[in-house]
Amino acid sequence: MVYIESPSTNPAFNLALEQYVFDRMDRSQEYFMLWQNDNTVVIGKNQNAFAEVNQKVADAKHISVVRRLSGGGAVYHDLGNLNFTFILNAKDATDLDIRLFCQPIAELLRSLDVPAEVNGRNDISIEGKKFSGNSQYLKQGRIMHHGTLMFHSDLSVVADVLNVSADKFQSKAAKSVKARVTNIAPYLPEGFTLAQFKTLLLKYILKEENVQPYVFSAEELAEIEKIKKERYDKWEWNYGFSPSYSVEKSRRFEGCGKIEVHMNTEDGSITNLQFFGDFFGVKDSADLAKALIGTKLEHQALESRLADFDIAQYFHGLEKNDFLNLLLQSE
């Protein structure tokens, strides 16, 4: 497995770096990457940035907002947080398996007498409090799994800058962000540093001592900068344009996450449709939305149009009937 250590704490650069490794580097190799971002909210591909981020706090604290390629929810990064990424061939995988990549992290922490557990759809927690959020991106037989590891992050900023909806607190049996997140450092011996933890993590994952990171050429760095400039630096990608919709509805599904439906209709048929939420999927929900344009908003027509679609590919963990009921539910 090739080790990659980002030379930057710029979030747009680091997401471009991930994309470069995923899309451009030797597919016969497996990659493990460690990286850090300075004061950033990273939102999932399917999320509405305006709904997820307290922009007033982000502006005041100079916190950037960047959208990643994978689904899932918004996470806060600072230099007290360490991010990890696995990139490898998915073999026969046609769906997401987030727990597979979380287990080694939990095992390492348990070897240090930290009671870490993989739980929920995509969390690693200590005593019921989340310190790691994870997500995946699956494309053309290749998988990218990335996650956060809050070591000594500023939890007060996490609480201030993220707009977490009440239904998520209810599903987690917690009343606030602070009640459901934690750092790793308090569970380790006093004086245990992030640098020490990083060294242990590298050794545990790669099974080697003194691993040397991959060195990027000037040409490769230029390509990464190009990806950064063309996607991750752009307002259109990070915030995006969202037209006004006459119908807006949302629901949280166990094992899937929250799905928001924003829809316009005319003469009983769908004319515009967009999905937001912290859900995962191996296919783009925008493609499903496009396929439903022109369909009458009634059960038989929708069921017929969706006959050849596997809804779980777009909304991991969701049944087709639940999706139909969501589209048809009245507010």
UniProtKB/TrEMBL annotation:
Pathway: Protein modification; protein lipoylation via exogenous pathway; protein N(6)-(lipoyl)lysine from lipoate: step 1/2; Protein modification; protein lipoylation via exogenous pathway; protein N(6)-(lipoyl)lysine from lipoate: step 2/2. Its EC number is 6.3.1.20. GO terms for cellular component: cytoplasm. SUPFAM superfamilies: Class II aaRS and biotin synthetases, SufE/NifU. Signal peptide: none annotated. One of its GO terms (molecular function) is lipoyltransferase activity. NCBIfam families: lipoyltrans (TIGR00545). This is lipoate--protein ligase. The keyword Cell inner membrane does not apply. It catalyses: L-lysyl-[lipoyl-carrier protein] + (R)-lipoate + ATP = N(6)-[(R)-lipoyl]-L-lysyl-[lipoyl-carrier protein] + AMP + diphosphate + H(+). GO terms for biological process: protein lipoylation. InterPro entries: aa-tRNA-synth_II/BPL/LPL, BPL_LPL_catalytic, Lipoate_protein_ligase_C, LipoylTrfase_LipoateP_Ligase. Residues 26-213 form the BPL/LPL catalytic domain. It comes from Anaerotignum faecicola. Keywords: ATP-binding, Ligase, Nucleotide-binding. Pfam families: Lip_prot_lig_C, LplA-B_cat.
